[in-house]
Amino acid sequence: MKTGFRQSMAWLHTWSGLLAGWILFAVFLTGTASYFRPEITAWMRSEAYRAGPPTPSAQPMVDALARMAPGGFTLLLPDGRETLGNAYWRESGAGRRGFREAILDPATGELVAGRETRGGEFFFRLHFQLHYMSPLWGRWIVSFCAMMMLVAIISGIVTHKRIFADFFTFRPRKGQRSWIDAHAAVATLALPYHAMITFTGLVTLMLMLMPWGMQVAYPGDPRGFSNEVFGRAAAGRPSGRPAPLVPVDPLLAEASRIWGGAPAGRIAVSHPGDAAARVEVLRGPEGRLSNQRDAVIFDGVTGALIAREGMTSGAAATHGTMYGLHLGRFAGPVLRALFFLSALAGTAMVGTGLVLWAVKERQAAAKAGRIGFGLGLVEVLNLATIAGLPAAMAAFLCLNRLLPAGLAGRADWEVNGFFMVWGTLLLHAALRLGGRRGWVEQFALAGLLGLGLPVLNALTSPWHLGVTLPAGEWRLAGLDLIVAALGALLGGAAILLARRQDLPARKVRKMAHGAAPAVPPTMRHGQAAE
Amino acid sequence: MTVGVALRVRGINESGGRWRAVGIAVRVAAAVLGGYALATLSSVALAVTLPMARADAVLTGMMAGVAVHAASAIWVFAARSAARAWGGLLVAALPLAAMALLGQWQATGRILP
After folding, report:
1. pLDDT 10s digits, B32-49
2. ipTM summary value
3. How confident is the model at residue A525 (pLDDT cuts 50, 70, 90)?
4. Has residue B113 been placed in a domain?
5. Domains in chain A: boundaries
6. Nearest CA in chain B to A519
7. Which of B43, B48, B108 lies at the smallest CB-CB distance from A210?
8. What is the pLDDT along chain B (113 residues), one digit of tens a residue?
9. Does the residue B42 lie in any domain?
10. Cβ(A277)–Cβ(A270) under 8 Å?
11. Which of A1, A81, A354, B52 shows the greatest Cβ crowding within 10 Å of its Cβ?
């Protein structure tokens, strides 16, 4: 019974991991990049970059927004990572689901004129709602794959009974065994992270996935739940009597004092300039794991404190902590780096798992003397995903520097270009089926693009490494350095693969002869792990 | 008839020709659809019965639902046969359905929403 259970779980691990693997790889890799969402955006719009510490006053931006958005607005305040003010507000007839957005200079409140780009937001959105489809469909597909991931993690833990030993085991240059070791190593190395990020990812989307609980508990009040938890209640009606908006900086200071010194993350003003104006100051991510709503509400004319809002219950804190853990916005530079490395390990876990399946099948195919359609499909998708996606992501950053600033629909063309490069690499993978050449070429392309990015940046932007390194502008230098390092890694993989052109073929033949014929392919995984 | 044979199909690692494939399809349906149904059912049952503020109960129910779906999928593929896989889901669903209906009745005086 016990062996039967482990065998069933090995089967489940193989198939849930494989079938969702390509989307999961993309979700993991673009999600990994999203840990640096503000930095990527700043790099991609570097002409608008403001060096130095954040401006202490929010007043210039609030004054400018009060003129632009008389109905009210939300302003995301600059902090140690984001140097500009990002605002949005509802406006009938505006694009993007009725929202208008603005980026402001904190010192002057003026609109920032930069190139049109999605920035890091593109990777962030892609990692949970895909692209070229409705966000709803994308989120359901990603959620489905995330559930497959969760099942693959649980069944994987059951399959590998020697988790502690796997941690220290790596037998290189042994074909399939090396891939099993590599897969088990990156999986166990950051296992709590993998389980946490997958479960909390589903928690961030659970309101869409399982809405009936809130519908049944709030009969006849479909918005009741989200109003209570997220404070999305309407901000009342304007009175029609004009009254000047209270200065906001003292309100931000007062809110910060209430939070024991933690800074505000955003400020929402409704009906500025009206006697019924209200100012809502929301706590930022600094100094707390949870991202649950913690708001201080002020009268927008007198500045009197009206209320402190936000649930403080255990359930709300649990939910907020899971959400906060997933976003990781609380993390300082060192913890952020660890999150980033763990997420890269997660990406490698999915990637090595995909390769492992193909390596095992290829041995069976070598014995049988023919390659089936399934194996061919998996090999093409593996190449286009594992090597093709990093190359396409690097190309996205290159396109940001190469497309002319005045191009109509420029932000969309960066995205379209990303998918064109990725699609081309998929075609390339199909044409190079079965050999190592495809891997060498795509890894080499990714390596060249990654290593070339700092050079391209130096030619096209005032904020290149020659400037950012001496000035200690790590917010911008970080992207050049990380992308170049990853490029070097992928380029190195290309060189290694190219040098070992003939060795693996011998290995594969040897391994295929050595494999016990009586063992069905689905069981080998569990066996080899023991 | 077809379903009857498929439900008797045993462990997923046993070779059984095309019936093995049917058995796997039945289990996949149990894991995806049955698991989702059980997850939402537990989220509703907890939302209306947990002795806490209703927003808390709803949040707790939904978070538990995610775990319930994962656990259901594991159960479905660990069960000795496809029929037992569905049977186990049903056994778990009955008390949850009773909880959901009871909570609904207590809150509104009506069984159906």
Report:
1. 999 999 999 999 999 999
2. 0.89
3. very low
4. no
5. 1-45+116-215+332-368, 54-114+232-309, 372-433+437-500
6. B13
7. B43
8. 344 444 454 556 555 667 888 899 999 999 999 999 999 999 999 999 999 999 999 999 999 999 999 999 999 999 999 999 999 999 999 999 999 998 888 777 766 65
9. yes
10. yes
11. A354
Alpha carbon B33 to its chain centroid, in Å, reads 8
Which one of A202, A315, A520 has the shortest CB-CB distance to B52?
A315
In degrees rounded to 5, what are phi and psi of residue A272? -60, 140
**Other Cβ atoms within 10 Å of A150 Cβ, number:** 24
| A5 contacts B48? CB cut-off 8 A | no
Residue among A207, A212, A321 with most chain B CBs within 10 A, to mutate: A212
Number of domains in chain B: 1
Question: Is the residue at B103 inside a domain?
Answer: yes
Name the residue range of residue B27's domain.
Answer: 2-108
A321 residue type, one letter = T
Question: Is A286 within 8 Å of A330 (Cβ atoms)?
Answer: yes
Contact B52 A523 (CB under 8 A): no
> Residue with structure tokens 């990303």?
A418
Tokens 């409705």 sit on residue: A134
pLDDT at A523 over 80: no
The answer as to whether B27 is a domain residue is yes
Q: Report pLDDT for B112.
A: 62
pLDDT, tens only, A13-53: 999 999 999 999 999 999 999 999 999 999 999 988 888 77
- The SS3 assignment for A484 reads helix
- Give the sign of the dihedral formed by CA A335, CA A338, CA A342, CA A344: positive
pLDDT of A176 higher than 80: yes
